Amino acid sequence: MSVIRVGTSSWADRELLTSGWYPRGVHTPAGRLAYYAGRFDLVEADTSYYAIPAPETTASWALATPDGFTFDVKAFGLFTGHHVRVGTLPKDLRPPAAPPNGTVRRSDLPPETVDELWQRFHDTLDPLAAAGRLGVIQLGFPPWFAHGEAATRRILDTVERCQPHPAAVELRHGSWFQGDRALKTMLMLQSAGASYVCVDMPQGHPSSVPPLLAVTAEPAVVRFHGHSPDWARGSKEDKFRYAYQERELRDWAARLRRLSEEADEVHALMNTCCAGQAQRDGARLAALLADQTARSH
């Protein structure tokens, strides 16, 4: 029987910590993670997008969580074509002359530096993998990453660099899904052994992708961004400020159940990361899935 894991994108963002979701007595990093892991069996670690954590940090994550808990880990932003602040690079790998805007992209660094960054990223995954806690490496490509041959090669190269760990690819430009490209995109990911990340998000924007459900590799992954009317021009908080309605969650519970008929494991991640809303939506979605399971038996 397939497993549907439900979790949220982050367990320690600032708005969550001030929302009251954690009890007053739960105030240490380890305590918060243990509390979270008592309510969900999946989380997306997003701190690794901003800077590569030390292996000691991920080892502490493994110690704070029970057997059966899973971390999907976001790749360092530099790997997926984003600008990153020079200060987030390890000191010994920073360019000798700081760029005028204080940020760099992958193409600004020597290939050997990029290789070393990947090695350090793998080093930080090792404690999670050794403890049986590692799910997928989440590769979230930027909204300007449009369909093309060079972009396809970049995806394939990045997926390959994740090996031996599984990768999941989230595309944020509608050009990958226009006409027959949707099928070609899925086949490309399937051939690469990468999971396609289905996204529920606002439609009608250049960054919009349709909520297509497909299994290209294990596990199947679905991320929920909500439907904020401020997606196009709001702050990060505005973009993801959304409360899923009961009917939406019921519909998605049924869709996830159907998806689980094609996958051994499904990861469902709430990214409505404002003041504990993701945790509330995730808990309700998990309850609906449990109700479905109980009725099916």
Walkthrough of the structure:
The chain is an alpha/beta fold and 297 residues long. Helix 2 (29-37) packs across helix 4 and helix 4 (55-64) runs parallel beside helix 5 (111-130). The protein is globular and about 60 Å long. The strands form two sheets. An eight-stranded parallel β-barrel has the order 1-2-3-6-7-8-9-10, surrounded by five helices. The chain has a two-stranded antiparallel sheet with strand order 4-5. The protein is built from ten helices and ten strands. The protein is 38% helix and 16% strand. Strand 7, helix 7 (181-192) and strand 8 (195-200) form a beta-alpha-beta unit. It has one domain: Protein of unknown function UPF0759 (TIM Barrel), CATH 3.20.20. Residues 90-109 are annotated as: Disordered. Pfam families: DUF72.
Rg from Cα: 19 Å
- Output mean pLDDT: 93
In terms of per-residue confidence, which ranges show pLDDT below 50 for 5 or more consecutive residues? none
* Content-based structural category: alpha/beta
Major sheet: 8 strands, parallel, barrel
CATH architecture: Alpha-Beta Barrel
Protein name: DUF72 domain-containing protein
Organism: Dactylosporangium roseum
Region (Disordered): 90-109
